[in-house]
Design brief:
The complex is a heterodimer of chains A (257) and B (98). Chain A has helices at residues 11-18, 29-64, 66-74, 78-103, 107-137, 149-154, 168-215, 225-249. Chain A is mainly alpha-helical. Chain A has a single domain (32-249), classed as Cytochrome c oxidase, subunit III, four-helix bundle (Four Helix Bundle (Hemerythrin (Met), subunit A), Up-down Bundle). The longest helix of chain B is centred in the C-terminal third of the chain and has 24 residues, at 70-93. Chain B contains 3 helices and no strands. Chain B folds into 2 domains: 1-65; 67-98. Classes of the chains: A mainly alpha (257), B mainly alpha (98).
Chain lengths: 257, 98
């Protein structure tokens, strides 16, 4: 510490000189990179708790109102949901590959893979909009002219309505209950898929900026931290969907159940 | 300076992870149509957790990171999430539905 005059020659000072992306408050590039990824992991930790609250509400109501949740879940399009999950997985692959392309210093490949990521993200959102529109047509948007009549018609046995045929008062009561409880499923469905979609929209915007930076050649094998931490975010949003898909779409798809 | 180079994962490994995730997605959709009783939910969540784990380990690079705090943060967040879910479900499941 006593010999301050010599600092200009230390390896540390040389690294600061040679690496313009290295901020002055970090000792070296590795520390800067670790701080950035660590910050993203902390943020993702808070995101786990954010989605966790909604998942918890969903699981509790699913346990309480199982027949209504099973019937509502069956009204979602299984094939569209499965294919959309596959689209999101493809986007995670292109993100991982684009980080790899940056590590290898292949700029054109990087930009192509990032554009593919944005494309898959937009396809996912488009399919989601299509599904939401179907829910609108089926009167399955809570409070907004919501009707569980189609669910009641298709799931007489599941709801135990066949045993209430001789008791009109109880039958009416049960139908009103189904109407209330299936709205809770769809409220949670829209809250969860909606929050997920907002994260996707933010992700697509983020990757728009990242793609532009990659196009400008900002990322090198030594420095591509923005791409890397944006990638972490994208994979996280993918993981949220990996859980949402079975929980929302696959509650009870057993034939004849 | 010290070697800052990151671990560059083989492209074939990323493709393998992708293939596993795609197969697992169709598998979970198919197995939901098979009557396993209460185990349908268990199997669905098990497959989802396997998928999430390989995304975290390979795609998000937790398997290769030199950063020592990443794993404790991840394990801590999941642990707290499980406290929330398990204790809440144990409570609500053991009382009359409201």
């Amino acid at each position: 510490m006593s010999d301050r005059a010599g600092i200009g020659e230390t390896p540390l000072a040389v690294e600061h000189e040679e690496r313009p992306e290295l901020r002055h408050h970090f000792a070296d590039v590795e520390q800067q990179r670790n701080a950035a990824t660590l910050g993203m992991w902390w943020f993702l930790g808070t995101e786990i708790m954010f989605f966790g609250g909604m998942f918890c509400a969903y699981l509790v109501y699913r346990r309480w109102y199982f027949p209504e949740f099973a019937a509502s879940s069956r009204s979602l399009d299984l094939i569209v949901g499965t294919l959309n999950t596959a689209v999101l997985i493809c986007s995670s692959l292109t993100v991982a590959m684009s980080v790899r392309a940056a590590q290898l210093g292949r700029r054109t490949l990087q930009v192509k893979l990032l554009l593919a990521t944005i494309f898959f993200g937009l396809v996912f959102l488009g399919v989601k909009a299509y599904e939401w529109n179907n829910k609108y047509k089926e009167h399955h948007i809570p409070t907004f002219s919501f009707s569980a009549n189609d669910l009641i018609k298709e799931n007489q046995k599941l709801f135990g309505l066949d045993q209430l045929q001789n008791d009109p008062a109880k039958l009416q009561e049960r139908k009103a209950e189904i109407q209330r409880r299936s709205q809770i499923f769809f409220s949670l469905y829209f809250a969860l898929t909606g929050m997920h979609a907002i994260h996707m929209v933010i992700g697509v915007g983020l990757f728009g900026v990242i793609t532009w930076m990659a196009y400008k050649g900002r990322f090198t094998p030594e420095y591509h931290t923005p791409l890397e931490i944006a990638g972490l975010y994208w994979h996280f949003v993918d993981i949220v969907w990996i859980y949402l898909f079975p929980l929302l779409y696959l509650i009870d798809r057993r034939p004849g159940a | 300076m010290a070697d800052h180079s990151e671990h560059v994962v083989r492209a074939s490994l990323y493709w393998l992870v992708w293939a596993i995730l795609i197969v697992a997605t169709f598998l979970t959709a198919w197995v939901a149509t098979v009557d396993l009783g209460a185990f349908n939910t268990v199997v669905a969540l098990f497959i989802a957790t396997c998928k999430a784990s390989i995304v975290v380990l390979i795609f998000m690079g937790v398997k290769y990171t030199h950063e020592k705090m990443t794993r404790p943060i991840l394990v801590g967040a999941v642990f707290w999430l499980l406290i929330l879910l398990i204790l809440s479900l144990a409570d609500y499941s053991s009382r009359y539905a409201g």
